[in-house]
Design brief:
This protein is of the alpha/beta class. The protein has eight helices and 17 strands.
Length: 429
Amino acid sequence: MNERWTRARATTAAVVVGAVLLLTGALLGRPDVAVLGAAPVVAAVLDWRRRPSQAVQVRLDAPDESPPAGVLAADVTVVAPPGAAAVLVGVRRHESELDEVLVRVDGTRVLPLVVETMRTGPQPLAEVDAVGMGVGAASVSEPAEPAARSVVVLPATRPLEELPLPPRLRGLTGGHDSRRPGEGGSLRDVHQFAPGDRLRRIDWRVTARRSPRLQELYVRREHALAEAAVMLVVDSRDDVGPDPATWRGTVRPATSDSTSLDLARQAAASVAQGFLALGDRVGLDDLGALRRPLPPGGGRRQLDRIRQALAVTSPEGEPRRRVRAPQVPSGALVVVFSTFLDDDAAEVAAQWRRTGHRVVAVDVLPALRDKHLDDKQRLALRLVRMMREDRLATLADADVELVAWRTSPGVGLARLARRAQRRVGAGAR
């Protein structure tokens, strides 16, 4: 198996120089010159005879669970055969070299690997290769079989203080005051005692004021608590970065930039986390794929399902044009996450609003960088912006509420939540 290891160029050059010095010393009768030439030749021969007989192996290990966006951690395991002095390990990601390090390996060594990423969804973690070096750098091995690993990066979430509610709450329990009478909510009214009222609901102060002789009893009635049904709809057809020059698809967006789909994943996961923390039921659908949506549900496991479904959401070629908007639960709040670069998402949102749903359109187009564009590209971008602004204005005229995720989304959602708080149980304007 020694054919896996070849003589290093530096060793070959040292042998050639040493042989020339030996020959020169022998021809000129200069033993001192011959001794200078003998040293590199002898060292190269001894080191070459001690070259390893097996190949270098490298392995990339990462956790099986999907990590969140930010810092990805993995372990690089390098196995060197006996006789190897060091191993040169190289790490690449997205066809660009990240780092290269020369390490000493005594049998097996585990190296920590940390990769920072702004992107979410399926993506390559890294590709690692290794080249072994023999004693005295006299020999080098063939490159080891590269080790690669792909991961699915979950979208990170951001806290949202206030969220808008649908026009009609549902369910027999929850975290919001409904319009129907019940228990657990805020004060609804004070009413005369009737069969079925609980004695602990008697308001003795009101009773003493209205009926001093206690001929009639008055009880405090409250609003019942209910839950909201929320449907998150992600438009996965567009995945554009902040550089408009990459929108044609010939050039990939920079790995350090968050694309519109990354923002949509983060926004949907954040909104889902906010509603689920209040005890509401949240579902997920995708405008770019004709598949069964994730039905509304509650709890921590529902948030994990939504984050996992968002992470694997990606453009799937040219989608089929929808004849009608997808079906959503009756009385649900619909939150649409899209760039609104075409009419499809806007038309679907307007259809939902016409059927009585409260619809919030979340704009996930990143902040654009256009200073490096030429005149033709600037003109094309200006036309796209004008059509997009007209589209958003049409949505506003259709009573669809707009929020831009790139500029203080928490403030925009809180403003929509406070707009509907005129009366208990009112979720829409």
